[in-house]
């Protein structure tokens, strides 16, 4: 094999010990049972450490475990050896040297380099004409660090030779995420060329969709034959619903449907019911145009923009990225950039803002030793480990060092280049946090606001003990709904994490300029003349704030006073103010022709923000409350029998329905209970359950049940595990205690993981704080009255209320026509000055465009 020839043609490493063939075989014999050959489906990490951003390019190289195929830098390989006992690692190192110069001073002519065998990205900061690479690999046996140079092909056991060759030949575990391969995996539907479309006059509006059978407003699919909009059920993207789109196919036989909300100039998610898989529709634009979704003109240029859209966007790109200004690069702790993986700038911008917040720094980087030491056996699949790794990479300064002249001179003398890593690649982090999300796991551009909420949800679900840094964003919203006919009111509270401000276009202060610009632009287009310089609408921030506080109509309002649907209006106020206030400007919408549109506006966002006047006041004197009567629960006929069966296994809870409810602002545990008690019948039915039970004292407490197949208990244990009377199987407890863990730890872990041994072990490693609480757990087990748990006072929503005075410290800006295209950058105020984070480039900002931002981050000013 070619790679093997390259591998075993290398000279031995200078640090390797010289041993005879028999000595090498004897040395490896005790470890042979632990050396594996990678199988299909194994992820082989050979370009990035699981705990850091070390790589074969790093000074210490990278160590790949020959059993788990996880990779570790020099700082972290000992930890993995101590935890697992795995002794054999392959050490990978890439050397970068300056090319030998010819007589004329230029580099010698290029020739094929047989010394490169690692599938690594080359350093973009190095000119490939001036430098050459040489890769080195050897086996290292711990704990004595015996090194075996891999040229010894005749002296290595056959299994070791095969395993080494397979590791070096393996593809990157992220290869499937490359943009080219994602779409090529989809076949063209055999129904696309001759699809029948009914001439029934159906026209699909650009928003406000809902299922025609159950009123569900999420996971909706447009049938491309008759234009029916119906909900899905566990299709290829694992979205939830009531399955009405599939039922419609079974009734009518119409084969193709497109998922609403995924339509972009580049295509959409299309599913074939007949072929039972996601497919490509080469005629998608034509099929969508049949229902009034006109996308053809969006292909006017390569990037999906119309020709007359280009010039306005150029101006925006220049202003936001501060083009034309000489920006001074910044280095050191807190000034590390993130490399763009291809439309990953939305993630990078959000994470830069997140890790500029002290609470997130303390929760993850401050707990780094404990999180790393108690990480599960596969740390690449652990949220807290990967958050800590990213936070340390951004804040340590280890990957953001300026070039030093003395070091450059020393490198030249040694004829070896030691490149300074400029930014880090969040590839492992993105792969993990997006793996269960159909959009974020793709390589398409995404909405930074949606990713922010997705991240907050992951932080909520993976909290470290009682510490939850996302609490700094959490606040309560008081919603006052008034029945227009009876004038009676209802006050409710919900949890939210950001403030969404509408764009008050009608309040533009330069309307005359805008009208004149529009007339000039149309005239220039008609006469094929150059377009005039763009005029951007100037919107007062006070007008946007006023629009936020005004009453809005409530669709499908059910009045408990009338026992019927009626007109209603809703007003929202802050029942509490968060420690950090995130403000999103609602710049994006759809036109009547379904073309995504962006309000090209300038808003005078304040550095100091006072929203104390938006504090909720509660029920006022003279107001009469609506009767506490719940609306009737409407259950689809085909699903009524499902309510009569036994409760589902908690591990089978429809997480997509849970997420739909959580995004409405309901507590996560309440959402899980709602989906559980309604038998996975979809978010609509679960929502009705929430309305009925939201006033109960244990509404937000974790779901608990006595065991598999039994009815769930409405109470909850202190730790969110199963009830104390549910004793895990003694044989599984014995297995865990034989590993050196306390018996009470084993019982608690098994209860928290439904008696799953592997998950219980991971739970113990990720919950070290429960070892400290062992006496309390034993006391609970010995207490005959287990009802003391349910009698404990519920904690309630976690909020950090205080003053409504804030100061701006960060903002994220977007360039482009929609959230599905374009680019994001982030500005953060650090040490008294603004800094721009544009992917891997970090520079001091000269003119921060605070008026063109999309998301703004404010911190509370202590009163």
UniProtKB/TrEMBL annotation:
Domain of life per record: Eukaryota
Keyword Nucleotide-binding on entry: no
Residue stretches making up the USP domain: 336-861
Binding residue positions for Zn(2+): 211, 214, 231, 244
Alphabetized UniProt keyword annotations: Autophagy, Cytoplasm, Hydrolase, Isopeptide bond, Metal-binding, Phosphoprotein, Protease, Repeat, Thiol protease, Ubl conjugation, Ubl conjugation pathway, Zinc, Zinc-finger
EC number per UniProt: 3.4.19.12
CDD domains: Peptidase_C19B, UBA1_UBP13, UBA2_UBP5
Protein name in the entry: Ubiquitin carboxyl-terminal hydrolase
Originating species: Equus caballus
């Amino acid at each position: 094999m070619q790679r093997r020839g390259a591998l075993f043609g290398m000279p031995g490493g200078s640090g390797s010990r010289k041993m005879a063939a028999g000595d090498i075989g004897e040395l490896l014999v005790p470890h042979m049972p632990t050396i594996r050959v990678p199988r299909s489906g194994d992820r082989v990490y050979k370009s990035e450490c699981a705990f850091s951003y070390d790589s074969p390019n790093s000074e210490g190289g990278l160590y790949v475990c020959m059993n788990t195929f996880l990779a570790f830098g020099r700082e972290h390989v000992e930890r993995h050896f101590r935890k697992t006992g795995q002794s054999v690692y392959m050490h990978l190192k890439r050397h970068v040297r300056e090319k030998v110069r010819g007589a004329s001073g230029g580099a010698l002519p290029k020739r094929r380099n047989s010394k490169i065998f690692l599938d690594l990205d080359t350093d973009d900061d190095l000119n490939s004409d001036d430098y050459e690479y040489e890769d080195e690999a050897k086996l290292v046996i711990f704990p004595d660090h015996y090194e075996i140079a891999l040229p010894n092909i005749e002296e290595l056991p056959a299994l070791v030779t095969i395993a080494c060759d397979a590791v070096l030949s393996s593809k990157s575990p992220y290869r499937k995420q490359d943009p080219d391969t994602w779409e090529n995996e989809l076949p063209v539907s055999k129904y696309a060329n001759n699809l029948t479309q009914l001439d029934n006059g159906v026209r699909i509006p650009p928003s406000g969709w809902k299922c025609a059978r159950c009123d569900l407003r999420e996971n909706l699919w447009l049938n491309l034959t008759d234009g029916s909009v119906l909900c899905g059920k566990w299709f290829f993207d694992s979205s939830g619903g009531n399955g009405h789109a599939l039922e419609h196919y079974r009734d009518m036989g119409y084969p193709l449907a497109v998922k609403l909300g995924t339509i972009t100039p580049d295509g959409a998610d299309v599913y074939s019911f007949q072929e039972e898989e996601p497919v490509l529709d080469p005629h998608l634009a034509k099929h969508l145009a049949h229902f009034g979704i006109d996308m053809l003109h969006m292909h006017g240029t390569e990037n999906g923009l119309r020709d007359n859209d280009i010039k306005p966007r150029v101006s925006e790109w220049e202003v936001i990225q501060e083009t034309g200004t000489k920006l001074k690069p910044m280095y050191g702790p807190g000034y590390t950039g993130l490399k763009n993986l291809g439309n990953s700038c939305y993630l990078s911008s959000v994470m830069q803002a997140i890790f500029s917040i002290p609470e997130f720094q303390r929760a993850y980087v401050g707990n780094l030793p404990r999180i790393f030491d108690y990480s599960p056996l596969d740390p690449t699949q652990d949220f807290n480990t990967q958050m800590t790794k990213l936070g340390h990479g951004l804040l340590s300064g280890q990957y953001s060092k300026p070039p030093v002249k003395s070091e450059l001179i020393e490198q030249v003398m040694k004829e070896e280049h030691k490149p300074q890593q400029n930014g880090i690649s969040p590839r492992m982090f993105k792969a993990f946090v997006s793996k269960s999300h159909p959009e974020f796991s793709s390589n398409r551009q995404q909405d930074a606001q949606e990713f922010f909420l997705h991240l907050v949800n992951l932080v909520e679900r993976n909290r470290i003990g009682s510490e939850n840094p996302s609490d700094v964003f959490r606040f309560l919203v008081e919603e006052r709904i008034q029945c227009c006919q009876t004038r009676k009111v209802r006050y409710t509270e919900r949890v939210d994490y950001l403030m969404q401000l509408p764009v008050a276009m009608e309040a533009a202060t330069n309307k005359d300029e805008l009208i004149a610009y529009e007339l000039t632009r149309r005239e220039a287009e008609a006469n094929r003349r150059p377009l005039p310089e763009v005029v951007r609408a100037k919107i007062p921030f006070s007008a946007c704030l006023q629009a936020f506080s005004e009453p809005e109509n409530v669709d499908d309002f059910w009045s408990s006073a009338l026992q019927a649907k009626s007109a209603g209006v809703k007003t929202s106020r802050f029942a509490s103010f968060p420690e950090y206030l995130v403000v999103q400007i609602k710049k994006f919408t759809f036109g009547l022709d379904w073309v995504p549109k962006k309000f090209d506006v300038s808003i005078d966002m304040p550095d100091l923000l006072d929203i104390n006047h938006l504090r909720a006041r509660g029920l006022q004197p003279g107001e009469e409350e609506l009767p506490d009567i719940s609306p009737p629960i409407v259950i689809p006929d085909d699903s009524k029998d499902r309510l009569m069966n036994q409760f589902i296994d908690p591990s089978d809870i429809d997480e997509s329905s849970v997420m739909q409810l959580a995004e409405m602002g309901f507590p996560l545990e309440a959402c899980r209970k709602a989906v559980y008690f309604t038998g996975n019948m979809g978010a609509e039915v679960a929502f009705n359950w929430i309305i009925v039970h939201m006033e109960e004292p244990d509404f937000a407490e974790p779901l608990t049940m006595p065991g598999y197949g039994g009815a769930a208990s409405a109470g909850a244990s202190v730790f969110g595990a199963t009830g104390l009377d549910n004793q895990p199987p003694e044989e599984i407890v014995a297995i865990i205690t034989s590993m050196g863990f306390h018996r009470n730890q084993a019982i608690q872990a098994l209860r928290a993981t439904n008696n799953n041994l592997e998950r219980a072990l991971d739970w113990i490693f990720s919950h070290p704080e429960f070892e400290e609480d062992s006496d309390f757990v034993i006391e609970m087990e010995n207490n005959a009255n287990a009802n003391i748990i349910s009698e404990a006072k519920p904690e309630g929503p976690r909020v950090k209320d205080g003053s409504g005075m804030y100061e701006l410290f960060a903002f994220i800006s977007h360039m482009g026509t929609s959230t599905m295209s374009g680019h994001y950058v982030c500005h953060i105020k650090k040490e008294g000055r603004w800094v721009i984070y544009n992917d891997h480039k970090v520079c001091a900002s000269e003119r921060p465009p605070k008026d063109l931002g999309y998301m703004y981050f404010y911190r509370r000013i202590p009163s």
